[in-house]
Fold each of these.
Amino acid sequence: MQSPFQSQGRRMAEPDAGLPPLGAWRSLRARGWIAALALLAYLLVSAGYVAHERMRLLESLQALEALQRHDKALALAEAAVGGAVVDVAELSSAAGGGDPPLPQEIVLYMETCTRLFAALDEFDPAYALLQRSIQRSYEGLRAAPARANWIDMRETLHHTTEALEARRHALGERLRALNDGYQRESDRMTLQSMLLAVAGFVLFGSLAAWFFGRLARDIGALESHARRIVRGERGVVLPVRRDDEVGRLMHAVNRMASDLDERERRIELEGERRAHAEKMRSVGALAAGVAHEVNNPLAVISGVAQSLQAAPDAAAASAAATTILEQAQRAAQAARMLADAAAPYSAATDWVDLNALVRRVVQLHGYDKRYRAVRVELDLDPQLPAVRTSADAVQQVLMQWLAIGCEALVHEGRGAPATLRSRAEADRVELMLCFPAAAEPWRDERQRDALLTRAMIEPLGGRLVLAQDAGPALRVQLTLPIAEADRKE
C-alpha cells in the first residue's frame, strides 16, 4: 500500500493540469533567441547603412582623385604652353624678312603640348579645340615662317594660356569644394557610426538590464517565498506576473505551499481526532467505573430500604426508606447520564439523531466547572429528521464552539443565556448556536479553530458559517445534508 506522502509527491512532480501549455515563444530560451536575432538584425541594418554611406564617401574620394589628376595634367599643359609663349614672343620679335627655318625648341614645345593636351582629353573633350587652334597656327607657321604667322602663333598661345588659367582656377574651386564636402561626409559618417553604436548599446543594454533585473527580482521574491514556506508562513500566495519557466516555477511553489498546508492540516486534524477519541475513551472508562462503583452500594441501600419499608410497625423507618429510595434513584440516574454522555461515537457515517446528540453535548458540557454559570437554552425541532453523518465530527464541532461561546460569556460576565436551535430545511438541517458575546471569529486563534472545524464538516457535505452580529452576538450556523447521497465529493 502506497503512502499518501508518496502519492502527493508524485502529484506535485507532475505538470499542473490547470495551467495552459507553455508557448514556444514564451520560454526563456525562445526569448533569448529572439533577442539574439534582434541584435543581429540591428547589426546588419547598421552595417548596411554604414556601407551605403561609405560607398558615397568612396565616390566622393574617387571624384576628388580625378580632379587632382585633372589639375596636375592641366598644370603641366599650362606650364608647357606658357614656356612656348615666351619663346614664340622672342622669336616673333626677332623675325625679319625672309623665311628662316623653325627653331628646334619650338618643334619640341609643339610635340610636348600635343602630348599634354591628349592627356587632358579624358577629363574634358573641349581641350581638343584649344589643341587644334594651336595646331592650325603651328601648321601655318611651319608652312610659311613669316612675321605675321609668328604673331598669329603668339596670339594663339596667349589665348590658350588664358583659357587654361581660367579652367585651372575653376578646377581649383571645384577641388576645394569637393574636398570640403568629402571632409564633411567623413565627419558625418563617423558621427553616425558612433551614434548607431551608442544607440544599440543603450537600447539593448536597457532591455537586457530590465529583463535580467525583473528576472532577478522575481527569483528573489521566489526565494523569499520559499523561505517563508519553510518557516511555516504559508498564508500568502506569491503573485505570478510571468508566463515563462519562472512563472511556472512560481505556480509550482504556490501549489506546493497549498499542498503542504493541506497535508499539515490533515495531519493536525487526524491528531486532533485521535486525541479526542482517546480523551472520550478515557472519560467513558471513568464514567463506566464510576457508574459501577456507585451502582453496587446503591443496590445494597435499595435492598435495605425495601426491607425497612416492608416493616408494618415502623412508620419512621418507612419514611426514611422512601427517602433512601428516592436518593438512590437520583444517583442511579446521574450515573446513567454520565455514562451515556461520555460514551464515544464511531467516526464512521451513520444515521444520527441530532436532537439527542445536541442534548448529549449540552449535558457533557455541563459537567465542566468553568461553565456552570452559563445557561444553555435548547430550542429543538421535534420533527427534525435523522441525518446520515459522522456523529463524532458533529459532536466535536459543537463542543468546540460551545466552549468558545461560553468562554466569551464568562469573560464578559454576561448573565444572558446561550441558545442552541435545530431546524429542518428541505433536504438539510441547521443547527444554530447564538451567544450574546463578542467572540470576534476573525482573530487568528479563532481562524485556526474555524479552519479545523470546517475541515471536519466539509468532507461530510456540510457548511459552517461564523458571524459576529450586532448586539454583539456570536452566531455559529452548522448546515448538514440529510442523506449521504446529497454530499458532494
Amino acid sequence: MRKADRLDVIRGGDCTVLGYGVSNRPLVEWLLSHGAGSVTVRDKRSSEEMERSGDAARLAALGAALICGEDYLRGLAGDIIFRSPGIRPDLPEINEAVAKGAVLSSEMELFLALTEARIIAISGSDGKTTTTTLTSLMLAEACKRRGYGRVYLGGNIGTPLLPFAEDMTPDDYAVVELSSFQLMTMGSGAGITRGALTNITPNHLNWHTDMAEYVAAKTHLLLGETLPEAAILNARDENTRHIGEAVASPVIWFTGERGLPAGYLPDTADPSRGDRAVYERAGTLVIVAPHENGVTETPVLDTDRIRIPGRHNVENFMTAIALTWGYAEPLDVAAVADSFMGVPHRLELVREIPRDGGSIRFYNSSIDSSPTRTVAALNAMAEMNAKLGRRAPIVLCGGQDKHIPFDPLAEGLCRMASRVVVTGEARDQIMDALHACPDYRPAALPVTVIPDYREAMEAACLMAQDGDTVLLSPACTSFDAFKNFEERGEVFRGIVRGLKI
C-alpha cells in the first residue's frame, strides 16, 4: 500500500494492534498522534499480567482500548490491523477480518512506506545482526567524512524506527534487520534500496509450516513490484543462488571461498544484469565488476585488519561491503574493521583467567540458536585456537528445539569440541544425534547431560583447566529457561565473572 493510501486508512480509521511488545509500543503512540479514529490493542497476556506490568495503565492513559487474555483475537476487526512479527498472519481470526475488508500491516511495513531515507535491509538465517551493525558503521563513517547524512539502525535488531520516519531525508540511511516473521507479509512495494540475504538454512521450523514457507518469506525481501537497486546474495548457498536466478535487480555475490582467480564471478552471475562479486584474493577482500573487455578488480580491505574471529565474520564483512559499495569508500570500511570488536553474545570473550602455564578463556555466543550457527562458531574457535596453540573448546549447548535436525551440530562437535555439556529441553534430541553420528566416540568426546541450564553453565565452567576454552553456543532457542538469548548470555556472563578458580 502506498504512503498516501496507508495514511488515508489511518486517519479517522479504526486501528487494531496485535501484541503490545517492543515494536508496537511506539506504534500505538504514533497512530494516536497521527489522527487514528481509535486504537485497540489486543494482547494474549491476562488482565492481571497487563496490570502488573503497567501496560494496562499506560494504554488507558494514551486513550487506547485493551482486549487481553486467551480470547484476545475473538471478534477481531478494524480498518487496518498491525500484527506483531511473532503472530502468524494466517490465523483464522486474521483471515476473517481481512476477508471483511481489513488491511493487514505491521509497524515495519508502515515505517518502510513513510521514510524518505535509503533503506538498506538485511535478512538471512545467520549473521544478520553483525552484518547490519557493520553496514550501519561503514555508512556512518562515510556520512561523517562527507559532512552530511545520518544513519538509523533498527528493525529486528531491537530499535523501532517508526518514531524517526518523518525526520529522515533522502540523504539518510535506514539500516534494518528483518526476520522471516516480519517478511511474511512484506515484499511488494516495500521500497528497499538494497537488500542482502546472508544465507538460508533450516531455521524457525517450529513457527513456519515448513522449509518452503521459510524460504518464501525470505524471498519477499528482493522480489516484488518495487525492486531494489542491488541484491546481495551468498554464492555458496543453494537457496540464495536460486533467488539470484529469479531477481531482476543486479546482484552483488559474495563467497567465503579463498584463493579464487582474479575476475571470478559465480556461475549464477549475469554480467548483462550488472552483477558483481566480492571475494578474498591473497588476503584482500576485492570487488570484481565485469566490463566489455574483461573485469575490473578493486581492493577494499586486508582481512588481517578484521578483529572479530571466524570465517563467517569475513563473510559478514563481504556482505556489508557489498551493501555499502558506492556509498562508502575503502577507508570507511578499514576504519570499521580496525575498531569493531563484535556484537554482544556473538563469540564474545567474557573473561580470560590467567593461570601459571597459560589461561582459561570463556566465550559467550548465546545468539547461536541453530545448529549452523554453532558450527560456524566452532569453525571460528578452531581457527583461532590453532593460531594460539589452544585445545578444542568445552562446548555448552542445548535449549528449546526449533524442529531443526541436529545432525550438523553432532558432526561439528565430534570434529571440533574436546568435551560437551548438554542441557535444556532438546538435550535428548542432541544426544540422539550424537549417538547416530558415525564420528562419535564417547572416549574421545566426553558428554555430560545436566537438565538445569544454570547448573550446566556452572559445571561447564568448573570443568575448565589451564589452556581450556569454554564456549556457550546453544544451537537452540532460549525459551525453555530464559526470556530471550540476551538473558541467557547475561546469566552466563554473571557465572563466569563470579568464578573463583
